[in-house]
Specification:
Signal recognition particle alu RNA binding heterodimer, srp9/1, Helicase, Ruva Protein, domain 3, 14 strands, 626 residues, binds magnesium ion, 47% helix, binds adenosine-5'-diphosphate, 7-stranded mixed sheet, alpha/beta, 4-stranded mixed sheet, Rossmann fold, binds zinc ion
Length: 626
């Protein structure tokens, strides 16, 4: 879609400032030519002469100011000499007395008031300089497009969908439920009369909620494209600036512009930047006024549409719905919430299809297998994957993308780019090898829907020194207690192998332990899988299930229960650890032989790995405890 910057001519805004400037320049000039009032040239004489003339009784009257004493003589010494003279006053307390004694009529002037022009200039010039400086910086930072007085302009970009480049629902895949809900919105925009005729209230706000990269921005563009209406796009963070009040003014401006172009869509990306709960942010020192004002303005504007107006629908996206202010979610505001979740197996397949069409694919490439191996990928990851595959193929000077390219691309997306330069010491490599083989053997023997597909000790990305890739054999939405226990044991397999072989543990298992503990905690706290604690959910679900339950505060429980939970989590992990140890001790020889092989080849996968793992045996004491 073509981007158009907002098109108010910037010149109009500068006009005023320049006019003011010129005006004051002229004033300054004029004032410097004006004679100082009441300062006609009078001959100056020494003070001593003035005093002696007073003493001689020759002075008729005197006019005393701070700068000079002007006096008139009764009779000038010569006929053509001036009768009015001036002198510079000195500090002389006796002067009034002396003047009085000799019968001089005298008056003093009040301290001189600053002239009108001086006052005006001192009030207007400093702010003017300030504005000019601001303007200078603003112009520089905005590339000259907008000026100082446009801080309150919304920076929204307007997309006007045109025929060839517009995005439609066909460009978005794998989020069918969200698409369905948004189809309704498209209908509102296209034929609002039909709804208003019956008296139905068209929703004003729709909140797209979901993890990053799942296509929220894309979906909202598709809504605009389907409805064929203008689309204002702005990020929540762009409202919030240095100046308190700028955000609110921008919101006002944005809605004004939008109303002119209605029916249209306003899309506020990253709504959480302005919509964070006000209650939650109390106690933060200062700095929240701005966001709060912006939020209030947004609420006001959303309440402000009248039903008879042409619809302006506000779409917003966030990946932290639980932090949003409750006021935003009330009816008449963002009362519709659309979940845009990570795609499932068939969703991933359709997304891959979309992007595979854009590259040259070798015949026989099986996208189903790629979709299977990418559980948990969001749409953006899949788009990235296909592109990585194409890059790999091009680098290898192939003319089309092959299955292997896509497979390698998966690993790249998963674990970051291959770091060939990172060299492990020989002894480190050995630890990593046993560690990964430990994962693989335990993982192979554990129940659950995944099979070990690859072991690698080639360092990747920032953190992973080696990895064991487990592929699910089928898409699973439900995990049994046994599955989860198996996952914990598998995660602990790495560390257990280190314990058995080297009698010591390294830091390499930190991430494994983290994940194992998380699973155990969820089993007890969320899934009610503990026999002792029963089917109670001790964790509070904050509506953030797709965010990995990052902040699940515990329900308020008694101390005894809290202790019991901790103990139960501990028991789960300990038991899994024992099972992993038992399995690996039982398969010690197998572990040795696979580790030797992997130290030679660095990577074992496919049928080789399958054959090797096939000879592993499950010891009796490591069976699942029913
Ligand atoms: P979000 O706004 O949810 O963080 P985006 O909409 O910005 O994600 O997605 C980034 C890119 O990833 C899109 O431009 C698109 O290329 C791709 N993408 C993400 N989700 C999908 C999807 N469901 N279908 C097709 N492409 C997608
Ligand atoms: Mg986005
Ligand atoms: Zn590990």
């Amino acid at each position: 879609m073509p981007i158009r910057k907002d098109d108010t001519p910037p010149n109009r805004r500068f006009g005023l400032v320049n006019l003011l400037l010129i005006g004051f320049g002229v004033l300054l000039l004029v004032s410097s030519f004006l004679p100082n009032q009441g300062m006609q040239q009078v001959p100056r004489v020494p003070y001593s002469l003035f005093v002696s003339q007073v003493d001689d009784g020759n002075v008729r009257r005197a006019y005393i100011t701070q700068e000079q004493i002007r006096y008139e003589l009764k009779s000038p010494p010569e006929d053509d000499a001036p009768s009015v003279l001036a002198t510079t006053p000195i500090f002389d307390m006796d002067l009034p007395k002396r003047l009085e004694e000799h019968g001089v009529e005298f008056a003093a002037a009040p301290p001189q008031k600053p002239s009108f022009i001086t006052t005006a200039l001192s009030w207007i010039v400093p702010p003017l300089i300030f504005i000019l400086v601001l303007q200078f910086f603003a112009r520089r930072s905005m590339g000259g497009a907008q000026g100082a007085l446009s801080f309150t302009k919304s920076k929204a970009k307007v997309y006007v969908p045109d025929e060839e480049s517009r995005i439609t629902f066909a460009d978005v895949a794998g989020v069918d439920e969200a698409k369905q809900e948004l189809t309704e919105i498209v209908d509102f925009l296209k034929s609002s009369e039909r709804y208003t005729a019956i008296g139905a209230r068209i929703p004003k706000g729709v909140l797209l909620v979901g993890p990053p990269g799942t296509g929220k921005t894309l979906l909202s563009k598709a809504v605009a494209g389907e409805a064929g209406v203008p689309f204002f796009i702005i990020s929540g963070s762009e409202f919030v600036e240095l100046f308190v009040g700028a955000g609110a003014a921008r919101v006002r401006d944005l809605f004004e512009e939008a109303k002119k172009k209605a029916p249209c869509i306003i899309f506020i990306d990253e709504l959480d930047a302005i919509g964070k709960s006000r209650a939650g942010s109390m106690g933060v020192v200062g700095g929240n006024d701005e966001r709060e004002q912006t939020l209030n303005q947004l609420l006001t504007e959303m309440d402000g549409f009248a039903a008879k107006d042409k619809p302006v629908i506000v779409l917003a996206a966030t990946n932290q719905p639980e932090t949003l202010d409750a006021a935003l979610l009330r009816p008449g505001r963002f009362d519709r919430q659309v979940l845009v979740d990570r795609p499932d197996l068939s969703g991933r397949k359709t997304i891959l299809d979309i992007y595979a069409r854009k590259v040259k694919l070798a015949p026989g490439v099986d996208l189903d297998r790629i979709a299977q191996a990418t559980s948990g990928f969001a749409g953006a990851d899949l788009a990235n994957l296909v592109n990585e595959g194409a890059l790999l193929a091009a680098r290898a000077k192939r003319t089309c993308v092959e299955q292997g390219d896509l497979n390698e691309a998966i690993e790249r997306v998963v674990a970051g780019l291959e770091k060939k330069s990172r060299v492990l010491q020989a002894d480190e490599k050995k630890v990593v090898a046993y560690h990964e083989v430990g994962h693989a053997i335990v993982g192979h023997l554990m129940p659950g829907g995944s099979k070990v597909a690859k072991i690698s000790i080639v360092p990747r990305g920032m953190a992973a020194l080696g990895y064991t890739l487990q592929l699910p054999t089928e898409e699973r939405f439900l995990n049994s207690k046994e599955d989860l226990e198996g996952q914990i044991a598998t995660l602990l397999g790495g560390r257990s192998a280190e314990e058995i072989v080297f009698g010591a543990v390294t830091t390499g298992a930190a991430n494994d332990l983290q994940r194992a503990t998380d699973i155990a905690e969820q089993m007890v706290g969320t899934y009610g899988m503990s026999d002792i604690l029963g089917p109670l959910a001790y964790d509070k679900q904050g509506g953030s299930r797709f965010l990995g339950g990052a902040n699940n505060p515990r329900r308020s429980v008694s101390d005894a229960t809290a202790q019991a939970i901790d103990k139960e989590v501990r028991t789960l992990v300990d038991r899994a650890h024992d099972r992993a140890l038992s399995i690996l001790r039982h398969n010690r020889e197998l572990m040795e032989s696979i580790s030797q092989q992997i130290l030679e080849k660095e990577v074992i996968e496919g049928d080789d790995l399958k054959d090797l793992l096939a000879s592993s045996v499950m010891p009796e004491d490591a069976q699942a405890i029913a």
